[in-house]
Amino acid sequence: MTTLQTRPAPPTAIRPRVMARSGLHILLIANAATVGWFFAQAGFASNTLIVLGRLAGLYGALLMAFQLLLVARLPWLDRRIGMDRLTSWHRRTGFGVLWALLTHAVFITFGYAEASSLDPVNQLVNLAETTEGVLRAAVALGLIVLVGAVSARWARRRLAYETWHFIHLYTYVAVVLAFTHQVSVGTTFTSSQAARTYWYTVWGLALSAVFLGRLALPLWRNLRHRLRVSAVVPESDDVVSVYVTGRDLDRLPAQAGQFFLWRFLTRDRWWQANPFSLSAAPDGRTLRLTAKAAGDGSAALRRLKVGTRVFAEGPYGAFTTLHRTRPDAVLIAGGVGVTPIRALLEDLDGHAVVIYRVATDRDAVLYDELCDLALAKGAELHLVTGPIVPDRLAPRELARLVPDIDERDIFLCGPPAMMAAVLRSLADLGVPKRQIHFERFSLAG
């Protein structure tokens, strides 16, 4: 199955992910320095607790604006970093926001209590009754604590996505309340028109990014392309492929390896979005997704009727050839994780080795297509079957299948446990992290 091909030269430019990540770091550091400068220009209170509390409030609000940017789903960032990593950073930043604002509330309350004859509880009540915006800030903090609680791992696993997402929307209420509190009573902003203008600009850009990436762009693309189901093809007893057509699909900037959040506008499922990867490289005429029945949403795909309207958000994801670092590649798929791998094989240049891990031959979805593609592209294809334990993709086995694995790009997609095991094997084999590409496909806040 292997033929010789002309190998493309590896890219020499700065890697897209490094460029985007560095840009975000520079943006955050520059704004943190600007906030610190405006804070110092406003002068310091005599009470150290009040000074530290005000500074914590400013940086907590700045992190909140940065959080919005991370989940704005701007195409430039998403293609270079990926929704999974951006969402993970958003989550970690969120806990930073929570602790910064709790520090702000505690230090301010104890600082003013130290300067008065009131105890901290009565001081807080007094501030809420006499100082503009403090009551709004208290409500905002309560909402942020609530969102933080439901975002903790133990709670997130127990909540349906729709429930979690609905509660998460209260963050925007908290943003408005906290922002109006800051600009109305924050000494940094009441003492400087330049600081107020800067703060309005920061928040205006952050909210505009969210509006553009999560509302305006998806609406515009769906109005333009008018997607509909054109065919529903069962691939096995529990796997189905859905073909989607529309207008001007050659202008939709989708790439092999990416995914969409799909809403099929039926009476009982219009409200539910599911992340499914493209299982074939976009050809400008049709998009195809392939899914395994793992819940009510994916099981209902088999009952879709031709002509059903589709609302698709995306394309999303950095699991593409944009991040190639080497001329040759290894594509490792597990189960239905083969869908983006199959699309990538269609799109890849250079020699490729495909390793498809399944429990039994019957679980090898799209295997016939993989065989045809491998033959056409001169790729090697290995079907690895057997029980999950013992691991069939241990370091020794991977080295046997691909002796030069440390000289190739690795594209990996499959169940979480399988991906974790393969990542450990790749680390043991000394494969550089920059050559390993994977993405966790899931709905993200």
UniProtKB/TrEMBL annotation:
Gene3D superfamilies: Nucleotide-binding domain of ferredoxin-NADP reductase (FNR) module, Translation factors. SUPFAM superfamilies: Ferredoxin reductase-like, C-terminal NADP-linked domain, Riboflavin synthase domain-like. It comes from the Bacteria. One of its GO terms (molecular function) is metal ion binding. It is a multi-pass membrane protein. Residues 222-322 form the FAD-binding FR-type domain. GO terms for cellular component: membrane. Keywords: 2Fe-2S, FAD, Flavoprotein, Iron, Iron-sulfur, Membrane, Metal-binding, Oxidoreductase, Transmembrane, Transmembrane helix. It holds the Pfam family Ferric_reduct. The chain crosses the membrane at residues 24-44, 50-72, 93-113, 133-155, 167-185, 197-217. It is found in: Membrane. Its cofactor is FAD. This is Oxidoreductase. The keyword Ribosomal protein does not apply.
